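Lab manual, section 2.4: Encoding a predicted structure.

Procedure: take the sequence of the chain (366 residues), apply the prediction step described in section 2.3, and record the output as structure tokens. A sample record is shown.
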Amino acid sequence: MSRPLCIGVDARELLGETTGVGRYLAELMRRWTARPDAAARRFTLYSPSPLAMRFPEGTTDARVLGGSRGTWWEQTTLRRAVRRDRPDLFFAPAYTAPLGLGLPLAATIHDISFIAHPEWFRPRERWRRRIVTSRTAAAASVVITDSLFSQREIHTRLHVPPSRIRVVSPGITSRSAGESTTGVAAREPLVLYVGSVFNRRRLPDLIAAFRPVAAQMPAARLVIVGADRTWPRQDLAAIAAAHGVARQVEVRRYVAEDELEALYARASVFVFLSEYEGFGLTPLEALSHGVPVVVLDTPVAREVYGLAAEYVQAGDLEGTTEAILRGLSGDAGVANQLAQAEGVLRRYAWDRAAEETLDALEGIVR
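Recorded output:
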């Protein structure tokens, strides 16, 4: 009997509160370790501290290496451990990988906002991201990304040949569009945003557009859920106070999955005014709960959400206010948008994403 294929994985994103890339890796790992042929491969998970997530017996090995989670750990401690263990290939799910591994490498680069818009990042951070991501892309046998838009960006800005870029769309974690939310909660005049808070996502514009909504509908609320990663820093609570809507705007750094599900179930409209994304998953999660979405009109948004979204232009506060009010009122346009959701959501499934990603990984050692 042949030995299992050994796949090394940078598992740092599974530590702590798993959002973004952490959710991405967790969904893939759950499916890879539950496959009928799971015995054909063994995953070595490298992290600086123990992982809380558990997997079926015999499918993974844990390498707890100590240290911090940063680039220095990646390029020294992690690099030494992987070079010592010599897995058959190494998977880096979050943009960067140890350089000089001397073995087949697969890396997921979700977007290159730090290159396309360096002004959104602190000088040291954008320099670090640019250098290490560029070198990771050059070293990788395959670069996985989330959308055709990001494929073009990686090819154009990082000069990776299209033949080495594999587009694998992520799936949707929450319930499907066809699953009823009846009995969970009644819809409220709740405007919702979920996602890390970056400058490119224009949360000050959302708060400004919400102000006329609050004036017309005193019961309306805006809930913003996401860790603040803005630079230059944006104080959303202060911005809400300046607009006179502090009592109707709630900013939450993080909520647990059950509370997030409850927010989706109660929300009447979801707003995501991002001007640059590699994909943009949370509007799809909102759609899967039957919540109409308002997004900024960008090429990647058109690619991902198609006809199942209402589009507004950057800086059009009046148009955004009107779109929010339509969402809260549930007019005919909103019903038409939601009617398109099932066809859009069908394109995004974690089972398919896991299958295609694993195929890309194994393809580099076949």
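Check your result against the sample. Residues 176-184 have pLDDT under 50 and may be disordered.
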